[in-house]
Design goal:
Layout (H helix, E strand, L loop, with lengths): L8 E4 L5 H8 L5 E4 L3 H8 L10 H6 L3 E4 L10 E4 L14 H11 L6 E5 L7 H14 L7 E5 L18 E5 L2 H11 L7 E3 L3 H32 L3 H8 L21 H11 L5 H11 L1 H15 L8 E5 L15 H9 L4 E5 L5 H8 L12 E6 L4 H4 L3 H5 L2 E9 L14
Parallel strand pairs: 1-2, 1-4, 2-3, 4-5, 5-6, 7-8, 9-10, 9-11, 11-12
Antiparallel strand pairs: 6-7
Helix pairs in contact: 4-5, 7-9, 7-10, 11-12
Length: 425
């Protein structure tokens, strides 16, 4: 059995999940951070994280951490942590390709007594049903005799500088009771908030996938309520504030649900449920409702413009924010693009402004060239789609200086008062 003093960690995948983890372990233990993106490795070697999750100072503090895009650099490692993405495909089915490829790469290096821990979000059973057979086939070793596995679901919240990897309680699990204890011990070296040792890998997988599924369903409920209250002429925010005076009312708010967690993870659970012959009605209904919100927002804006007798075709629209959440440069699976695509059907002239994102990424991913500066007195309407700190710091006077005299302000994020806005969810 390994000792924590003898382990050499490999972190496979250096995105929002893997890099903060590698940095924290790299302050105490020998760690190799691996990513197939050579430019990502070059930037990290130069001391910069373009995701902005880890500061240059924090990178410098990880004195035992090295980076590589060469899988052979991991051959001396004996504790592998897999943090690759688990996306969905165009048919909203789980795409386990990154996970399988990572398992194949590790399998080519696997030695007796090595431990492989998965952090990527999957459906319950995926680690043992999909990943372990790959490890066995490629390595030629026998699971739970010659190598072992664990699962510790990631709980990174991109853009959140208060809740970091070390101060978020970590769920851990192992393929045997002894391995579960050891995996838990390893994570406790860096997790100051403590750990929760789940009784099995499947339980840990299930716990993770329902975290975001629960949020998705709750937001869908609030989105549906917002649509109902809009029909009734009632201010949704006022209703939620009033209801929120009860101690057990959950503080969810309406909005566009995108990103690579809440908008994706439920499909992993529904995929497994359907494979078992079940039809998860509530989860899929919530997904459909949340996926329709971009089109709903576009329609509401058009109605608001018509009421103000603003010419629709050719009007100038400003969309503030493209990233999937505030204070984060990530544009993957952003639902703002659904809203933009819906607006384009009305032949509008749309500008997108987001100081957090990479213009090159926006062009590559969506064919969009965001503007870099806000002009004055130009726009017929504005949609505040993301609550970036720069937008929060703007006054309503600042915002309206970019608008024409007759305009519509659609504040999706409740940054301004009801008196200063024309539309809110």
């Amino acid at each position: 059995m390994l000792n924590t003093k003898d382990i050499k960690i490999a972190v496979i995948g250096l995105g929002y999940v893997g890099l903060p983890l590698a940095v924290e372990f790299g302050k105490h233990l020998s760690v190799v951070g691996f990513d197939i993106n050579a430019s990502r490795i070059a930037a990290l070697c130069a001391g910069t994280d373009h995701t902005l999750e880890v500061s240059d100072e924090e990178l410098a503090q990880a004195t035992h951490l090295s980076y590589s895009s060469d899988i052979n650099e991991l051959k001396d490692c004996n504790f592998f942590i897999v943090t690759v993405p688990t996306p969905i495909d165009d048919y909203k089915q789980p795409d386990l390709t990154p996970l399988i490829k990572a398992s194949e790469a590790i399998g080519s290096l696997l030695k007796k007594n090595d431990i492989v821990v998965y952090e990527s979000t999957v459906y319950p059973g995926a680690t043992e049903e999909v990943c372990i057979p790959v490890l066995e086939k490629v390595s030629g070793l026998t699971f739970n005799q010659e190598f072992y596995a664990g699962y510790s679901p990631e709980r990174i919240n991109p853009g959140d500088k208060e809740h970091r990897v070390t101060n978020i309680l970590k769920v851990t699990a192992g393929s045997t009771p002894e391995i579960a204890d050891f995996v838990d011990e390893v994570y406790n070296l860096i997790i100051t908030a403590g750990t929760h040792k789940a009784p099995s890998i499947k339980v840990a997988e299930a716990a993770k996938v329902i975290e975001n599924t629960q949020r998705d369903v709750n937001i869908a409920l609030i989105n549906e309520l917002a649509v109902i209250f809009n029909k009734m002429g009632i201010d949704t925010q006022a209703v939620l504030e009033a209801a929120g005076t009860k101690w057990n009312f959950l503080p969810f708010r309406p909005g566009l649900v995108g990103g690579h967690c809440i908008g994706v993870d439920p499909y992993y659970l529904t995929h497994k449920a359907q494979a078992l012959g079940m039809h998860p009605e509530i989860i899929l209904a919530a997904r459909r409702l949340n996926d329709r919100m971009g089109g709903y927002v576009a329609t509401q804006l058009i109605k608001g413009m018509v009421k103000k007798q603003i010419q629709i075709v050719g009007s100038k629209i400003l969309v503030m924010g493209l990233s999937f959440k505030e204070n984060c440069p990530d544009i993957r699976n952003t639902k703002i693009i659904d809203m933009v695509d819906a607006l384009k059907e009305y032949d509008l002239d749309i500008d997108i402004y987001d100081p957090w994102i990479s213009p090159a990424d926006a062009k590559k991913e969506y064919g969009i060239s965001p503007i870099l500066n806000l002009p004055s007195n130009k726009y017929d309407s504005v949609i505040i789609a993301v609550a970036h700190k720069q937008f929060k710091e703007m006054s309503i006077v600042d915002l309206k200086s970019h608008m024409k005299s007759n305009h519509v302000v659609f504040d999706l994020k409740y940054l301004f008062s009801d008196e200063d806005t024309d539309l809110r969810l």
